[in-house]
Amino acid sequence: MPSRKYADGEMVMGRWPGSVLYYEVQVASYDDVTHLYTVKYKDGTELALKESDIRSQSSFKHRKSQSSSSSPSRRSTSRSRSRSPGRPGKGRRRSSSQSREHKNDKKKTVQETSLALPLVLVLFKPSENNTKRYNGEPESTEKNDTSCIVLEHKLKPDLEVKRVLEQYSLRSRKDEKKKEEIYSEKKIFTTVKPIEKAPSKTKDLEFGGRIGTFMLMLFLPATVLYLLLMCKQDDPSLMNFPALPALESLWETRVFGIFLLWFFLQALFYMLPIGKVVEGLPLSNGKKLQYRINGFYAFIFTAAAIGILLYFQFELHYLYDHFIQFAVSAAAFSLALSIYLYVRSLKAPEEELAPGGNSGYFIYDFFTGHELNPRIGSFDLKYFCELRPGLIGWVVVNLAMLLAEMKIHNLSMPSLSMILANSFQLLYVVDALWNEEAVLTTMDITHDGFGFMLAFGDLVWVPFVYSLQAFYLVGHPTVISWPVAAAITTVNCVGYYIFRSANSQKNNFRRNPADPKLANLKFIPTATGKGLLVTGWWGFVRHPNYLGDIIMALAWSLPCGFNHILPYFYVIYFICLLVHREARDEHHCKQKYGLAWERYCQRVPYRIFPYIY
C-alpha cells in the first residue's frame, strides 16, 4: 500500500484541474482509500488532487530559477555572437543605430513577456473577484470576456505561447502532450462562441438495435392493451389471459374526436403568452432555444375547464366506459405523429439531428427520434408533449376513475384507497409542472430525439399505464384502515422528499454553484468545467432521484392491496426503466467525464439502492 508523501498542513504547489498551472495550496487531509489529497487554495476553494498533481515548493522554485537564468533574450544574444563573422573588428564593433535597435528589440521582448504573464495569471488564477471556479465553471462577466479576447490576440503566434510558458516554468519542455493540453485549455477559456460541430453517426445502438426497436414498437401497444383488458376482468390473475375483443370494438370515431379536442386544447394553453421565457442548454451549433414556462398555468386552466363540465353535469365517467378506445385513439395519433416527425427530419440540417437517433437505420431512428427539437415556428413539439397532454391527462383520467367508482358502487364519497392513489399521483404531476424548467436539463430534451418512443410514451404510456392503480380500484375495491393509510402516506412522503430534495440540490448547483446555501457541498472538478457532487444526496447514491421515484411508485400501488400483482406492474416496470436509464447514464457520464467519473464512482459506490445496488 503506497504511503503518503505530503503531511497535513504542509504548504505545497497544487495543479489547478483542467490546466497546467500550479498554485500554492495547503494539504488538508488524505484519503487512504482513493489516495487523494484534499487541498485548500488561498481563496478557500477545496479540491481533491492526486499525488501526481502536487509538487513541493522547493522543486517548483528551483525550476523557476533555472528558466529565468536562460531567458530567450540571452539565448538569442549568444546565438548571434556565435554566428558573427571571423573578422574581430566587425564582430565586436556596432554602429550606434544597430545598438539602439538591439536595445529596443530587447526592451520590447521584456515588455511583451511582462504583459503576457499577468494575462495568463488573471485568466487562470482562482480568485473571488475574477474567475473563481465552483463546480469547475468560471463565472462569465464582461471583464473576464475582455481578458479572454485580449489574451487570444496577445498570445499569437503559437511560438509566443511556448516562449512565455517555458520561461515561467508553467509546463515541462519535454512533454509534447502537455502542449496540446495548453492549446485545448486556451480554447476552453478564450472561446467566446462555441465551435459549430455536426453530430456524428450514432454507433452505440440501444434497445437491442434495429431488431429490438422493431419488437418494442409491437410490444408496447400490446402491453397497454393487455394491462387494460386484465383490469376489466373479475379475476385479473396473470395466468387468466383475457379474451381478445373484436377489432371494431376498439375504435370509435367520437372517442378519437374527443382525444383530438383534448390535444389541441392543451396546445392552445401552451401558446398563451403567459409565463416566463427561458433558454435551454446550448445546442451543438452553439444556439439556445427559448421555451415558455407555463405548464402550471395550463394545469389551472384545465382544472377550471373540468370544473365547468362537471357543473353542467357532464358525465366524466364516460372516460372509464371507453377507456380502451381512448387508449387505441391515443396510440393511433402517436403513430401518425411519429411518421410526420420522421418525414420532416429528413430535411433537417445535420446539426439539428439527435445524437442518439442518427444511426442511418430507418427503424432505429424512427423509434428513438431522428430530429432533436422539431418545431413548427416557435411551437416545440417534443417539449409540449413531454408535460402537457399526457401528464395533465393522467390527472384527468384518475379523476374520471374516482367518479366512476362512486357511481358504480353507489358511494357518497370515494374510497380511502382511491383518495390515496389520486392524491399521491396528483402531487407528483403538480410538482413536475411547478418545476417545469428543470425538464430542460433532462436527457429527453438534451439528447433523445422526438420519435415513436417519446410520442407513444408521452401520449399513451403515461396517461393509460400510470393510472393503472385507479383503473384497477374501480373494478376491484380495496378497503384499508386509517393506520394503514397513514403508513402508506409516510412511505410516499419519504420517497417524495428524497426525489425533490435530490433534484433541487442538483438543479441549484447547476444554476448557481457559488450560492452560499451550497457552501457545504463538496464536488470533484471535471475537464468539462462541471463538477460532480460527492456530498448531500449525491454522495449517498449516484442516482438518489431514481431511489425516490421507486419508493413513490411503491406507495402508489400499496392502496390496491396484495390480492393481485397487476397493480404492482408499475413498480416492476419503473425499476426496470430506471435501471436501464442508470446504465445509460453511467455510459454517458464515463465518456463525458473520464477519470473524474471513475473517482466519483470510488467515492459513491452504490448506484440506486444503498448497500444493495
Written account of the structure:
- It is a single chain.
- This protein is α+β, with helices and mostly antiparallel strands.
- The protein folds into 3 domains: 10-57, SH3 type barrels, CATH 2.30.30.140; 207-478, no CATH class; 480-612, no CATH class.
- The protein has 23 helices and 13 strands.
- It has helices at residues 57-69, 72-82, 88-92, 96-124, 142-154, 158-167, 176-190, 209-232, 253-271, 295-311, 318-321, 323-345, 362-368, 381-387, 389-408, 416-434, 443-446, 452-465, 468-475, 482-511, 544-557, 569-593, 595-603; strands at 11-15, 22-31, 36-40, 46-49, 54-55, 133-134, 137-138, 276-279, 290-293, 375-376, 379-380, 523-525, 531-533.
- The longest helix has 30 residues, at 482-511.
Largest sheet: 5 strands, antiparallel
> Which structural category do the helix and sheet elements fall into?
alpha+beta
Quick check: average pLDDT? 77
Cα Rg: 32 Å
Architecture blueprint of SSEs:
Layout: E1 11-15, E2 22-31, E3 36-40, E4 46-49, E5 54-55, H1 57-69, H2 72-82, H3 88-92, H4 96-124, E6 133-134, E7 137-138, H5 142-154, H6 158-167, H7 176-190, H8 209-232, H9 253-271, E8 276-279, E9 290-293, H10 295-311, H11 318-321, H12 323-345, H13 362-368, E10 375-376, E11 379-380, H14 381-387, H15 389-408, H16 416-434, H17 443-446, H18 452-465, H19 468-475, H20 482-511, E12 523-525, E13 531-533, H21 544-557, H22 569-593, H23 595-603
Antiparallel strand pairs: 1-2, 1-5, 2-3, 3-4, 6-7, 8-9, 10-11, 12-13
Helix pairs in contact: 4-5, 8-12, 8-13, 8-18, 8-19, 12-18, 14-15, 14-18, 15-16, 15-18, 15-19, 16-19, 16-20, 16-21, 20-21, 21-22, 22-23
Subcellular location: Cytoplasm; Endoplasmic reticulum membrane; Nucleus inner membrane
EC number: 1.3.1.70
Organism: Scytalopus superciliaris
